[in-house]
Amino acid sequence: MNLLLLHPEQHLQQDRWRLTPRQARHVLGVLKLVEGDHCRAGLLDQGTGMARIFSIENNDVHISFKVDSQPVAALPLTLLLALPRPKMLKRILIDAASLGIKRIALLNSWKVDKSYWRTPNLKGELLKEKLLLGLEQAGDPVLPTLTLEPRFRPFVEDRLDDWAGPGERLLAHPGDYPELPRGLAGPVTLAIGPEGGWTPYEIELLQAHGFQCHRFGSRILRVETALPALVGGVMRLP
Fold this sequence. Notes:
By secondary structure, the protein is α/β, with parallel strands linked by helices. The chain has helices spanning 21-30, 86-99, 124-138, 152-164, 200-207, 223-234; strands at 4-6, 11-13, 16-18, 38-43, 48-57, 60-65, 75-82, 101-107, 145-149, 168-172, 188-192, 212-214. The strands form two sheets. It has a six-stranded mixed β-sheet with strand order 1-4-5-6-3-2. It has a six-stranded parallel β-sheet with strand order 9-8-7-11-10-12, with helices on both faces. Helix 2 crosses helix 3 and helix 2 (86-99) runs parallel beside helix 6. The mean pLDDT is 92.
């Protein structure tokens, strides 16, 4: 945890805030701070600043904090991701938030097992929790927006153009395609399919909406490996 990410309900009065039990354990057990010490904090969807440990009573930690800095720069990349295996989804969302991706859509694909859409891991609070962990890692207070799209064709045909917005549209897919461009400054929408790639029908429909197929080396990667590798290669990270 590189940032104490405060939520509005933690506010007490004036510049006083109360840490959650998890945050208090981190401050006391990991950072080993005492009254009067300082650490970095942020307010959800606003900004960051330095917090001072104001009081500690029976592991109940109060801090003084005011926002004095703008959030770190967001990555100008929108992520269209075929829904991955539930066990990998948690790690992928943490990584995506850490990288600064602010708009994510989890999309169905023919190769996505139908059971993935029924997993308890898709509950909103569980997904938000993983995104928050990524923000704490990166020192970023701004929560990404995440949408679930269990119907491929209606989303692509009816909503994709408005959702993706302007900029380049890149489709990562193994095969005899040009190499992905490198070091872009954005904006970019990047589509990453399931393991094994999109189906020909899905590629054709995405291409009809402005996506260009590109390969990323000769290896077939797991999605959780491909995401940071692709983003780090394609984008100029802030």
